[in-house]
Design brief:
With 183 residues, this protein is mainly alpha-helical. The chain contains 7 helices and 2 strands, in the order ααββααααα. A hairpin with a 2-residue loop joins β1 and β2.
């Protein structure tokens, strides 16, 4: 008894029309013949037989490629369209191209060092590790940076207030400021 293999997924099976070719392949091959054969016939007397054959092959190859190429059930023009749209028409800002995520998000702090599984477990049990110590130092430095930024912003606000007060202070104002500072 003869054995006939039937694929489990019938969605990938394409209907063949003529010469065991799909409709898409027939159309592309017909376009290739419509472009290549007249090119060969009109150019063989002017540039020679061999050059005309190479020109015909060069003009027909893109049509053969469009007819035969398929990856992940997508045809060549769909893949080309997706690549063109992703590269030129809708380029996305990708944070992984930045040096760090902190720079991408414009966060002014030092990033911590990643703890691997073993170091994390040791830190969880109370055993200090080198990377854990680095992260603790980074946390202290980030806290100091935050405090400095707060002081700088307060000083900038004070300078703005002083720039707005163009009138010279009176003697009573100077004495009251000195007395309030001592308290």
């Amino acid at each position: 008894m003869p054995f006939v293999s039937v694929p489990k997924d019938l969605s990938k099976v394409k209907t063949k029309i003529a010469f065991n070719l799909t409709k898409r392949q027939l159309i592309c091959f017909a376009l290739a013949a419509a472009v290549g054969v007249p090119t060969y016939l009109f150019t063989r007397t002017a540039i020679g037989n061999s050059a005309a054959v190479f020109l015909m092959i060069g003009l027909m190859l893109p049509f053969f490629f469009l007819a035969m190429f398929e990856r992940d059930e997508q045809t060549a023009e769909k893949i080309l369209r997706n690549v063109v749209r992703a590269r030129w028409f809708f380029p996305a800002r990708r944070p992984y191209r930045m040096e760090t995520l902190y720079e991408y998000l414009e966060i002014d702090q030092i990033p911590t060092v990643h703890l691997d599984v073993a170091a994390f477990q040791m830190e969880k049990r109370g055993i200090r590790t080198e990377r854990g110590n680095m992260n603790r130092e980074i946390a202290v430095t980030n806290n100091q940076l935050r405090q400095l930024r707060a002081r700088i912003s307060k000083l900038q606000d004070w300078l703005k207030e002083e720039a707005e007060n163009t009138a010279p202070p009176t003697f009573a104002d100077v004495i009251s400021n000195i007395l309030t500072r001592r308290e």
